[in-house]
Amino acid sequence: MRHIGYFLLAATAALALPSSSNAVGLKNCHSGNGSAEKKIQETWADSVLSSLTLRERIGQLFMVAAYSNRDDMHVREIADLVRKDGVGGLIFFQGGPVRQANLTNYYQSLAEVPLLVGMDAEWGLGMRLDSTFSYPRQMMLGAAQDSALVYEMAADIARQLKRMGVHINFAPVVDINSNPQNPVINTRSFGENVNLVSRYGKAYVSGLQDNGVMACAKHFPGHGDTFEDSHFSLPKVPHSKQQLDSVELYPFKQLISYGVQSIMVGHLRVPAMENDTLLASSLSPAIISGNLISEMGFKGLIFTDALNMKGVADYFSPEDINLKALLAGNDVLLFPSEVSRSIDKIEKMVRRGQIPEEVINIKCRKVLMAKYAAGLSSYKPIEVLNLYSDLNRVSSEVIRRKIISLALTVVHNNNSFIPVKRLDTLRIAYLEIGCNRGDAFREQLELYTAIHTFSIDPSSPAEEFDSLLNILEPYNLVIAGYHATDSRFSMNYGVTNQAANFLFDLAFSRAVVLDIFGSPYAISKFYNPESFRAIIVSYDNSFDAQNLSAQLIFGGRFATGRLPVTASAWYPAGYGVTTINPIRLGYALPEEVGINSLLLKEVDSLANSAIELAVAPGMQILAAKDGVVFYHKSFGKPTYLSSDSVDVRMLYDVASVTKVVATVPSVMRLYDEQALELDNNLGAYLDLKEFPDKSAIRLSDLLRHQSGLKSWIPFNLKTLTTMIPNIPLWQEKLSTDYPFQLGSKQFFSRYTVPNPVFYCDKESRDFPNRCAEGLYSAYFMADTIFSAINRSELSQPGKYVYSDLGFMYLQRVVEGITQTGIDRYCEDKFYSRLGMSYTLFKPLTRFDRDRIVPTEVDLIFRRQLVWGDVHDPAAAMLGGVSGHAGIFSTANDLAKLMQMFLQDGTYGGERFFRPGTVAQFTTAPIEGNSSDNRRSLGFDKPASEGPSPAGSLASSQGFGHTGFTGTTVWADPENGLVYIFLSNRVYPDASNTKLAEMNIRTRIHDVFYRAIGVAK
Length: 1016
Description:
Blueprint: H1 4-15, H2 35-51, H3 54-59, E1 62-66, H4 72-83, E2 89-92, H5 97-110, E3 116-119, H6 138-144, H7 147-163, E4 168-169, H8 194-209, E5 214-220, H9 241-248, H10 250-258, E6 262-265, H11 285-295, E7 301-304, H12 310-313, H13 318-328, E8 333-334, H14 339-351, H15 357-373, H16 387-391, H17 394-407, E9 409-413, E10 428-433, H18 439-446, E11 452-456, H19 462-471, E12 477-482, H20 497-507, E13 511-516, E14 534-537, H21 543-554, E15 586-587, H22 601-612, E16 618-625, E17 628-636, E18 652-653, H23 658-672, H24 692-695, H25 699-703, E19 720-721, H26 729-737, H27 745-751, E20 753-754, E21 759-760, E22 769-772, E23 775-777, H28 781-791, H29 805-818, H30 822-834, E24 840-841, E25 857-858, E26 864-865, H31 873-877, E27 887-889, H32 891-902, E28 906-907, E29 910-911, H33 917-922, E30 959-963, E31 967-972, E32 977-983, H34 994-997, H35 1000-1011
Parallel strand pairs: 1-2, 1-8, 2-3, 3-4, 4-5, 5-6, 6-7, 10-11, 10-12, 12-13, 13-14, 15-17
Antiparallel strand pairs: 9-14, 16-17, 16-32, 18-27, 19-20, 21-23, 22-23, 24-27, 25-26, 28-29, 30-31, 31-32
């Protein structure tokens, strides 16, 4: 009892200085309450204090642990402590938000004095409750190098806590984690730099207290440089008083002067401050009353760390622990045991004069002042309605993703290897270390290019790693995601010897990018880190960390993060490599690019409504603003009969969009290379001497659909025959399965079949062109088709008539110049370099059918469901490759090409066209432009009046194309908007015109324009 008088003196001094900047009851860190409000606060506290018995005043100093995931017995125990023992507060641990809210309301209804409710929510409610939000741990915040973001996060946590009826958050941790072997603080610390920890601690405190939630700096006097966990033993802090002052105590001093309202005292052995080697700091009058209160002048609430922890519980009985903690200078006993007996014991000692009653009164008044500041003088129950949605706002996700994006730290980047460039030269494997733990990483990587995934558990035997080394032999880039890290030194940070040896060997034989989804200390467990092409620290294995880290690797994001701790001898605290600005599409929440996601629900509604009205069975829709994809969804099913849903990786037949995806880019590149001239005639490139009218057509007129060529020739109908009148039973069944109105098609479906002169049911040298399953066209089919085009009649050259025939000619021009098939040329020059790994002619050569969306049930020509083969009959007759149709793709792939056009021909760090070429091809010419031709060189443009391929809000600078199967690609330089719409509206019948009649594509386009702030 020798410290009672000393403590009383300090406590009385604290009570005599209510206007101090760190006195309990302040609403923020920057100014005190107005004197009038302060007077009201004091009056309320004094009034309540005077109404309480001694036992009730002692009870106010106990904050007991409550759970919302335990049984009725636990609820009764807590209710008894509130009702009978008058405890002053609850600290909630595991459970669920609605259950906790209901229990809070119940317990508050039992309390004579409203309860002060606390939570240990360092990284948000998700630290304790299911169905709630989690932010990154503090070490990632330290890497982000942005104290304003720390404030923003803390303010949001405060909002969520207040919504849950919580008044104090036991955060932030301001321990200096200078010891990589620390088993308990570690990633909970901002880092090892005292100034960084202090600065971010202030931001965290401000964010909480400015928004009505008390902050609590912990774990005084500093738990960062310890080798033990105070949950299980009593850790020792061996430093001198001088080092403690300059390191461990420094953040606490800074936060006290800044106005932190409470401090938690840890269970630590600190010989330089407390001579008794068995007395934890949480029970030490010298440390609390002597140092924290008297020397450092702290006058706010002082909480113990949880008193059930073995750092103190192994040394004294629960009643003695509670008594010692109180007498040491703590105001609130957290998570105490034997509460009733402890209150009884303390009350007896007060009544016997062993403890001055004034000590209890001072502490109780401080607690009551805090309760008033928390709004408990006018307590209202928690409203449970809309609780989940209030606790899980999109705005929180935006803050979290911003933190993670800024925190991602590149610690090694040999020759600026990331962002990865020249995708066409790479065969990429993703190695998932930690089975089934990298799905989000893999899915995002796949949006950039084709990858092959392999998975292994880090604890697998060396023989399995050796086998994997052989399997990876064909790949020249391996992206190794280490998803099985551990924050504990005792667990080698999750890095096994066999995994480290494997990566060491792998990095010497090929390029390896190592991404560590966990503690930066794990770097120290990998051999010769300089042998990797790049090393990234992603700090945790959350969905967002995986998603954003994959974007970083391929240049959808850039890195600015810095190590908050010394990871190894190679990589000290503060180190990090800044990568270049984004070179490829990024992927974000709408709010990340300033768009309200609620506005985009109209897109969902239009898409779902269209599917219900049988406009199309399914669709993919994508929108990007300024190079960032903010909307990317799939709807419906591949067919109305499908059991599976469409996903964003499925390939659609884009029909005439092929023109701007294959033919026009090829012409543009050859134009750049001066291999062709737009004003040259077709005869300069093709042998058309026998057809002078075709020979004289200018390439520019072909591109603008004003060559005089017919719109279309029904080639397929000319290759049907009535020689075989008997219809096989499977054809009759097909007509029965799809009983829609055929009209004039009825004749063809029943009395015509493919002519065996032109077709065979098996592939051979004479019939090499696949038209559909079991249908191959003759080797001379292309000559037959072009003979028909050559002999066709021209009508009114110079007048706009949309024609596929011109683009069939342009294909031949490209192939004649390049001596390469247009499919191979596009793959080599564009798709493989852009990462358009899911864009190609003849998709069945690379993908299974279940990755491809079917089109029409063709009862006339192919007599089957067209699935994996091009819908367009002429393109099918040509084997699936044509200048006007034949491309299959995804919305994501097409967005890359359109973004490249928007960026004046650059993407992924490469230049595809000379500066100005894209503008030349996408601008409708003024001279010689008839009023009825809106077309530029190959691209469609918005219509000034009447039906338009684009939304009514599209600018005149916009360009794109539509496809017969129900597709659209569009880019708008004025607004930085890319829009992709894919559907198979031709399933099961191409006569379904609802998509155009209902203007689904253009209406959705306008929603995106309005969402980005464009209005008429």
